[in-house]
Specification:
Layout lengths: L16 E4 L2 E7 L4 E5 L10 H7 L4 E5 L18 H15 L6 E6 L1 H12 L4 E7 L12 H18 L3 H13 L9 H8 L5 H8 L6 H5 L5 E6 L4 H13 L3 E6 L5 H4 L1 H20 L19
Parallel strand pairs: 3-4, 3-5, 5-6, 6-7, 7-8
Antiparallel strand pairs: 1-2, 2-4
Helix pairs in contact: 2-3, 4-5, 5-6
Amino acid sequence: MKKSNELHVVAAADTTTATIPELPGCLVAGTGVPVVLLHSSLSSKSQWSELTTRLSARFRVIALDLCGYGDNPMPAALRPFSLDDEVRLVADRLDRLVPSHVRVHIVGHSYGGLVALRLAERCRGRVASLSLYEPVAFAVLDRADPALADVRRVADNVQQLLKAGLRLQATEIFVDFWSGAGSYGRLPREAKLGIARNIGKVPFDFQAAMSWPVDAAHVQSIAVPTLLLEGDHSPPVARRIILQLSRSLPKRYAGRIDAGHMGPVTAPPLVNPWIEAFVDMCVERDIAPSAGATANPLAPYASAAD
């Protein structure tokens, strides 16, 4: 995908990467307009290393761990967990890293994409744009949708295997659902063990993902420019969600990638240019909103005008 060479360079390059000791689960690189990266389930902020390198020459990139991943502790099992617990964590980090009057551009993958949507709904005026790769907004689907039944089956199987102490088997069920049969088995043993380390958080993620949105109005109220990316080889439920979101979000663009659900991890050279071009476009329009003649780098791919 070609980018317009008319896009502004927002800030001088400063790609120093730093963790913030008093804020666990945060990695910050570069300077300029803030771009926040939210990872998928069974992952962490490190999944965005290549995108961070691309963006930090012009933006202040903030990669965050969600609850129970990376440097953040697992949620307490004794109290109910919700999507808003994730949103509170992200909002707290942002409030301590970015002045309250500064809007941020959010990039989210899978579960991180769902957190990004809810954050945009709850914190209106704080979010400037959304770049989402297959957010797991299960609740936008009809409860009788067969694709949703597949998700419930996987969630139940993972829960039962974890109760039986079979962490590797639970991880295999989850990974193979999203990445295809045999995907977990083909991983090196070290990678298998590393992924399985966080499988205990997945039931919390399913619980949160099934609870929002309550109705279509919640999604329709998200009025920021939103890029919806999907993979050609993803499970049916991911494509069904993208279809429903594209009908509800008022300012959405759409793109398809020759990849699966884990495209941001397995195929960053295909995914990252879309995100980079979209963030560039949105930042440029924020800087010069009246410059209507500026080229739109996503014009050939746009499914809605904003």
